[in-house]
Amino acid sequence: MPKKFKGENSKAAVARARKAAQKEEEDRRKQAELEDEYWKDDDKHIQRKQQRKEEREKKRLEALQRKKEAAALLEAETSAIKAGKIVNELPLEENINRVVDAEGEARSVDDAISLLSIKEPELDKHPERRMKAAFQEYEEKNLPRLKAENPNLRLSQLKQMLKKDWMKSPENPMNQRHLAYNIKK
Questions:
Q1: Where are the alpha helices (DSSP H) in the chain?
Q2: Which residue numbers delimit the Coiled-coil domain (predicted)?
Q3: Of 19, 27, 142, 152, which has the fewest beta carbons less than 10 angstroms from its beta carbon?
Q4: pTM over 0.70
Q5: pLDDT tens sequence across 153-185
């Protein structure tokens, strides 16, 4: 017959103690999960509200980051521009009020006015007299261009377009500066 043990097997005791510790740890973990589950707020509206709040905060931080980057780029650009600043100075016009006129000296008001007045080219008093000839010249010059642009229009339509252009043209004597026929000098 084999020998009887009076005590307990040390290896088995260690294994049982280890298993008991593992079971106790597992029970503690399950208890913590149950407690967390109990206190967890599982209302869908509150979860959605919390999610939207997190998204808003994330967007706000991203916008702030973009603003900082834009400000840094702007600062870099302005510093680069300031470094290579080019100054275009416009020539100053001479003040004609301070100029001493060497042409002559005025003793009367009429002489002073004629002396100070700017000499302008002679203005046409009767531009309507030159209109027919000027229109014919304008028509000869621009009718081929209009025909090329609009080949499928009739001649009357082309002439209407030409007349419309003529009314706005600077070549029209009525659009040029002129004096009234009865003005006094």
A1: 10-39, 44-83, 109-116, 131-149, 155-168
A2: 95-176
A3: 152
A4: no
A5: 999 999 999 999 999 998 888 887 765 555 665
